[in-house]
Amino acid sequence: MRGTLIFAGSSCPDITDKICQNLGMARADAELTQFSNGETSVRILTSVREKDVFVVQSGSPKINDTIMELLIMISACKGGSANKITAVLPYFPYSRQSKKKSHRGAITARMLANLLGVAGVKHVVTVDLHASQMQGFFKCPVDNLHAEPLIARWIRRNVARWQEAVVVSKNAGGTKRVTSLADALKLNFGMVTTDKKRGPSMSASMIAYPLDGIERQPVLDPISNQVRNNSSEPENGYPATDSGRSQDSRTAADAQGSPRMRANGTHSRNSANHKSPPKRSQTTLSQSSVIDELDEEEADALEYNDQRAHEVTHGRLVQGHIVPDDFPSPATSVADTSVPDDDLMTMSHASSFFAPQPHALGGSGDVGASSDEEDDILKDPKVEHTITLVGDVKGRSVFIVDDMIDKPGSWIAAAETVVKRGRASKVYCIATHGVFGGDCLEQMQACDCIDTIVVTNSYPIPEHKSRNASKLVVLDLSFLLAEAIRRNHYGESMSPLFQHLMD
């Protein structure tokens, strides 16, 4: 392409050469060195005046050196009077730090976007950002390409009976990505979630029985044609005594958190002669008026139906692995967490035992939580987790999908769940970015429940790791990036790059 130069950073010379080969041009020359104290030095060896410059740089184990090298290359091209500078980042560094995880945390991805703008970038091309809203961090246009069409084509060509497979998300945060691939392939999808197991000795009164004096609204059951008033208040306006309440039933939570009913014995908080001031009268709902408003179709829809109950499977997870039901529980899950029923202070704060764990600022679960945090939680030897598989995978191939593979814990846990609990036939772990921190690739290679690991070459994988990984399949992104560069240079639409092409 006339008037175009493509420079390669030190992290990804191989993919840059493939991009240039697809475009029928040679890589531009630049000298990248480091001083003895670790400072990065860049010297551009060709004229960039009034040229359209593309700098290709990805992540690497030395991520901070890689970022500084990219910024210095961009600044050098800007100082050389380049017409337009585009940063091509197959893997965007610090993408997992796209939101605050504490009140004094930093949004590092936004800071990096600002640094690129200050250095002189006028356009950014990347692949599968960890959070798509990160595009708003930039003051220049961003093309967030997707590897999904490439992955879908590989599945259609290489997986036997892929039409019967199920796409599974290994956590709640990845469901949007999973449903997108499932829709493209017209497949069913499922989800795996993990929760910390509660102690089996938790007092039922802490869970289901509120303090005296708290009104509870009546509950209408249109199916059984009964109106159940949860309040224990009799018609005379006074609260019931312990003797009158001894035959009531309570809803308690067992060790797995499922509701069960148990008979309530004599309660020790109130004496038999104790009376409280009269409460305000409650307006009860008219059973007949509500039932009349329900037509036959609505009544049928409200009937109890357990047709899909078999698609929900539970398992026990200890130190990141599925264990049998008779496996001894760790200390945390079997600890005696019950409290005396007469402890009013604890009773009044019972809900705090079931409050959700703190998340990133924003009020919901942190979709961008790092796999390091997820792995540390799963590997805690003192905590047992309950893992739940939603979806029918029996006898089918399963595609566990996420945007990156960094730590192995959640991948192995999800794979063991769909195989040992869901009876899946094969498991494919699929991601765009194969970061493979530490011994991640070795652990996934050794896992008997994982058959194939599919990633792209957006992140450089060391040769000594890939050489011994027989399950690893690396897809080439060079054509996608080359076409994005060509369309960017000529001002053509990027929309065709997001379309799925049928074989």
Automatic annotation (TrEMBL):
Q: Where is the composition biased (Polar residues)?
A: 224-234, 265-289
CDD domains given for it?
A: PRTases_typeI
* Presence of the UniProt keyword Zinc in the record: no
Per UniProt, which keywords does this protein have?
ATP-binding, Cytoplasm, Glycosyltransferase, Kinase, Magnesium, Metal-binding, Nucleotide biosynthesis, Nucleotide-binding, Phosphoprotein, Transferase
Q: State where the protein is found.
A: Cytoplasm
Biological processes, Gene Ontology terms? 5-phosphoribose 1-diphosphate biosynthetic process; purine nucleotide biosynthetic process; ribonucleoside monophosphate biosynthetic process
Write out the ranges of the annotated region (Disordered).
224-289
GO molecular function terms listed in the Swiss-Prot or TrEMBL record: ATP binding; glycosyltransferase activity; kinase activity; magnesium ion binding; ribose phosphate diphosphokinase activity
Q: What class of enzyme is it?
A: transferase
Q: Which Pfam families match?
A: Pribosyl_synth, Pribosyltran_N
Kinase among keywords: yes
This protein's major location comes to cytoplasm
Q: Which reaction does this enzyme catalyse, per its entry?
A: D-ribose 5-phosphate + ATP = 5-phospho-alpha-D-ribose 1-diphosphate + AMP + H(+)
Q: Which organism is it from?
A: Chaetomidium leptoderma
Where the record annotates domain Ribose-phosphate pyrophosphokinase N-terminal, the positions are: 5-120
Name this polypeptide is given: Ribose-phosphate pyrophosphokinase 1
Family to which the UniProt record says this protein belongs: Belongs to the ribose-phosphate pyrophosphokinase family.
